[in-house]
Structures are given as structure tokens and as C-alpha cells.
Amino acid sequence: MPGSFVVFDSLARQLIEWIAPRQAIDFGAGAGKFGRLLRSAAPGCRSVAVEPEAAYVERFGLHGLYDEVRIQTAAQWQASGINERFDLAILGDCIEHMPKSVGLDMLNALAYRAAYTLVIAPEFLVQGSVDGVDAEAHVSVWSERDLHWHDLWAFDNCRSMGVFLLRGYLPSPVPLRELVERVNTVNLPVHEFHDVASFVRPARLRLVEQPREVAYRPA
User: Fold this and answer.
1) Sorted alphabetically, which InterPro entries does this protein's record hold (predicted)?
2) Could you tell me the residue ranges of all domains in the chain?
């Protein structure tokens, strides 16, 4: 569905505010949830939406939420966006709609093109086409077990939702370890599926590091 659960909305908003992106791209923009988050948490950010369903652009007013809207799939963006660079890439309730091979290709490509990649995805939730849109079907399963090829990232999971923050190879003023420490000390709420006022527990990011030569790897 073009909307999404609010389980990690408070965490996402705070991460966006701390990362303070100047350039951000939102894949599978849907109803524009992350466009709104970017507008409020990083008001100076230039935002790009990538959305394969042309009908959603007008239906959800995406041109009013993003600086640029592109009607294309993630795979099409990979082919056309070779020279693009972003401070933050977002795949919010999006990657589960891609075949696993496409999603892994996407995350690998973003390691070179985004300082941070924020992924939020459901696990265990069955979904077929929605309102006749076959692309809304869930076709791949994602968890922390899928990301151990990556050398520097953090994750949390709750209420069948997972959140993953991957540190790419582009420079950023805020190291991942610092973001993890901040999150784990400020008691950011994790919510029930549909209730942003609810409090299940504090967010707790777990850091995964597989060190290489420090001189070559941005923190």
C-alpha cells in the first residue's frame, strides 16, 4: 500500500534531523510520508522522489512534497543515476516490493552514492496487489541477516518491522557510531503499527562493524 506503519516514525524523524541532509532521495515515495518528514526535519534539504506508479504522483500531491519527482523504478534509477550523490537515501516500506536480487543491487549501488541509506521494511506480513497495483505486493523478505555483506551499519526491529541504517562511502559530518549512541541515550519511542502517540519501548540501535583499514573508510 502507498502508506506505511508508524513503528519507527519517531526514530526516522530524529535520524533525519541529526544527519541534516542537503540532498536526499526517497525511493518508492508512495503517499509522500518521507517527503513530509524531510520537509519538517531537514527544511533546507533538496529532496527527490522516485515512484514507479504514475497515478500516485497526482493522487498524493508528490510535486508539492518534493523538489523533484521521477516516475521510474529503482532499477531504472540505478541505470540513470550513476553520477548522482546524496547525503541520505530512504527506502521506507519499499524494498520488500523488489525481488531480493534487485534490492541487494540497489543497496550496493547506494553504498557509493549515499552517505547514509535508511531502510524500513516489514517482516512476516503477507500482501498481494492493492487497488489493482501489482507492484504493491510483497515479494522479498528483509532482516538483519541480509546485510552482513556490509561493513558498517546499525539496526533495530520491533512489531514485525525492521529499521536499518547503512553507512555509505561518501563523507558525512556525523559518524554512524555517534548516531547510534545518541539514539540509545534519548529514549526515542517505538510505536504500535498505527498509533504514533503510543510507546512500546525506546529505540535501541545495534551497531555492526566489520573493520577494514580505517584510513580508507569514512566513519
Assistant:
1) SAM-dependent_MTases_sf (IPR029063)
2) 9-216
